[in-house]
Model the fold of this input.
Amino acid sequence: MILVLISILLTPDGEAAELKKATLMPLWSTQAQFAGYYVALDKGIYARHGIDLTILKGGPSVSPSEHLQNGKADFAVLSLAAALQQNGAGNRLVNVAQIIQKSSMMLIARKTSGIRTPADFQGRKVGVWNGDLATNAFFTKYQVRVQQIPQSYTVNLFLRGGIDAVSAQWHNEYHTILNSGIKADELNIFFLDDHGIRFPEDGLYILERNYRKDPAFAASFAKASLEGWRYAFDHPDEALDIVIRTMKKEHLPANRLHQKWMLEKMRDQMKPRKNGGEMGQLSPSDYEAVGLALRTRGVITTVPGFEDFIGRHDAQQ
Done:
């Protein structure tokens, strides 16, 4: 299922201007992690920026990077590490806006497991998502070997005591664990970002060849998206209504309390690291750190220059 906005834009003279069609592939199924895009679509923000947007349906069987490569999506939400991997494979991408500034990735263990420090992970069973480079970078940094258990899209194995620790995102699985009845003070939490593993997640990407054809259009998309996020944070109840309405149309389970938690944590994760920083900007230091980590692990051999990787149009103006 897709959401389609069909509209026209009026010029200052009152004449109709044709909107440029575009498609966006989120990183996952509809949820408040992507609220800004659904809000911008619903409120006509993309249309005001000259864009007729279609938001494609994401999920576990959908690859945003593949949708970019095969032309099914014009823009996609990807983590920085995934985007650099694509570049390393010869699929050149451009970051038009970095949505998440501070990584939400964490490792969670019950206090009763005895895991209190990174060294305590040695030999333990840890749920790890397929291709999770950030968590592996954490283990490498502290020189610990763990029994990596492939993690599904739930934390049920952790809840049932099948593993000692679980990978999670602050805006998602952590709240699911709390909702299961486990109290926060029963857990030891390791934010990867706090341990120097700064792998920012959600960014907006476009194929480099498409970006070069029309950089102004890519900039307009970034501006509209960020405007949608600002509206969502200023009007959280309305934003949640839009997200949950969309989820129900797609027959997805919609828990408002969980979606509210997610939206609130997205606000925190989108704040610039430095005072005076701008929403949507990729930090050069984070870029260099992720590039170095991927090269060190042999995932990629080269890293594009920072100025070649980011859109040159300022998404804030």
Observations:
- The radius of gyration is 20 Å.
